[in-house]
């Protein structure tokens, strides 16, 4: 660049100029999801959160299907075939509205649909994926159990052969979409190892009571899955995988979306704090004019946009087929942890107003406490990275 070239203006919304990394198609996906969320979620989500419900979830799923947001990084079967970066941008915009909406999309696409797409038979793919991509059928993913979260190898849910059929018994816990799902991908112990099963939720013996009294992810459907002698045909098993490699690869895909999504919650909280700092007056001038407030805003902006840059880097690696699970753990560990800190700092700038649902900050902060735990706790991702760095396994 010559000394006389004119620099672009500083953009407080994009201080590093990260939009320059995006192609026109990326921006179109981002803007489509952002517009949908602004119209269909933001005007209502505080009320949903306060009441602890997500009304009209089936309508929302169909609308998300119509804009290509369900299973969007998968190809064929009615899926959009979007890039990993485009899927990440969608997750960011959805979680900027609410983590519960991003969770709906993540569980549908990165867990339930991804499992069927990668490990299912052609018949299973044709039966379920087009309707799931359209939002006509909602899916859930049954791995976590009441007594076994971080240690899925110890799951108690089991499936036994009975002639040509399988009979499933067990319990799953903290299952997003469970009570509204038309199909559940359930992982169970068998004599051959852990296997996945595609379970229509109208199967006799299957039930999904909704979990109430949550103080996080309140605008999200969370359920227990109960399987009492659920009889399934041989065609219900996912034929292309045996062992924990199956569910863990699905979780890695979902964690990638969280790397982006957490930055959406952080961005929403940062923007609320920045707007508030510009307009809230104390001691005769806006609080944004005080050094301590500016220091907070600067630190928040640095961590926010570093996190987005990290997410973008991981997305390009995924698109190139070079993203390792340890790198996903790196992103999930950093971005969720920093997003929570951004929300907490934003709350201090808003003062007492920070706890009000008039502003999104406390809602995002409490939601992120769940995001911090699911798809691998902080401790689990620290140990994944610790093992990768040292070559020594500290899990057991």
Structure report:
The protein has 396 residues and is of the alpha+beta class. The chain folds into three domains: 18-133, Butyryl-Coa Dehydrogenase, subunit A, domain 1 (Orthogonal Bundle), CATH 1.10.540; 139-242, Beta Barrel (Butyryl-CoA Dehydrogenase, subunit A, domain 2); 246-390, Butyryl-CoA Dehydrogenase, subunit A, domain 3, CATH 1.20.140. It contains eleven helices and nine strands. It has helices spanning 24-40, 45-51, 57-66, 84-97, 99-119, 122-133, 245-279, 291-319, 325-350, 361-373, 378-390; strands at 139-142, 158-162, 165-176, 183-190, 193-200, 206-207, 222-232, 281-282, 285-286. A four-stranded antiparallel beta sheet has the order 2-3-7-6, with helices on one face. A three-stranded mixed beta sheet has the order 1-4-5, with helices on one face. The protein has a two-stranded antiparallel sheet with strand order 8-9. The termini are far apart.
């Amino acid at each position: 660049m010559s000394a006389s070239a004119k620099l672009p203006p500083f953009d407080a919304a994009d201080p590093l100029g990260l939009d320059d990394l995006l192609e026109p198609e990326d921006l179109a996906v981002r803007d489509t999801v952002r517009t949908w969320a602004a119209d269909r979620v933001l005007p209502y989500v505080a009320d949903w959160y306060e009441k602890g419900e997500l009304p009209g979830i089936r309508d929302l799923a169909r609308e998300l299907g119509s804009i290509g947001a369900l299973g969007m990084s998968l190809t064929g079967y009615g899926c959009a075939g979007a890039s990993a970066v485009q899927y990440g941008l969608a997750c960011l915009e959805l979680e900027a509205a609410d983590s519960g909406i991003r969770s709906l999309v993540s569980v549908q696409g990165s867990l339930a649909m991804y499992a069927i797409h990668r490990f299912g038979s052609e018949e299973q793919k044709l039966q379920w994926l087009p309707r799931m991509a359209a939002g006509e059928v909602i899916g859930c993913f049954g791995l976590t159990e009441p007594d076994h979260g971080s240690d899925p190898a110890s799951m108690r849910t089991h499936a036994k052969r009975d002639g040509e059929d399988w009979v499933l018994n067990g319990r799953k816990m903290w299952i997003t979409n469970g009570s509204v799902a038309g199909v559940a991908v359930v992982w169970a112990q068998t004599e051959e190892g852990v296997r996945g099963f595609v379970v229509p939720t109208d199967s006799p013996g299957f039930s999904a009571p909704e979990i109430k009294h949550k103080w996080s992810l309140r605008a999200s459907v969370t359920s227990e899955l109960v399987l009492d002698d659920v009889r399934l045909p041989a065609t219900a098993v996912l034929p292309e995988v045996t062992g924990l490699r199956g569910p863990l690869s699905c979780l890695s895909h979902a964690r990638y979306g969280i790397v982006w999504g957490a930055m959406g919650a952080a961005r929403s909280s940062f923007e609320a704090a920045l707007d508030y700092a510009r307009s809230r007056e104390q001691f005769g001038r806006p609080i944004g004019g005080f050094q301590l407030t500016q220091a907070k805003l600067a630190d928040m902006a640095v961590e926010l946009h570093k996190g987005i840059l990290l997410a973008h880097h991981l997305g390009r690696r995924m698109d190139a087929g070079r993203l390792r699970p340890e790198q996903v753990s790196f992103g999930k560990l950093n971005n969720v942890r920093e997003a929570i800190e951004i929300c907490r700092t934003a709350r201090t700038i808003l003062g007492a107003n920070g706890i009000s649902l008039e502003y999104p900050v406390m809602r995002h902060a409490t939601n992120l406490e769940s995001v911090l735990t699911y798809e691998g706790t902080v401790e689990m991702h620290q140990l994944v990275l610790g093992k990768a760095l040292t070559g020594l396994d500290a899990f057991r």
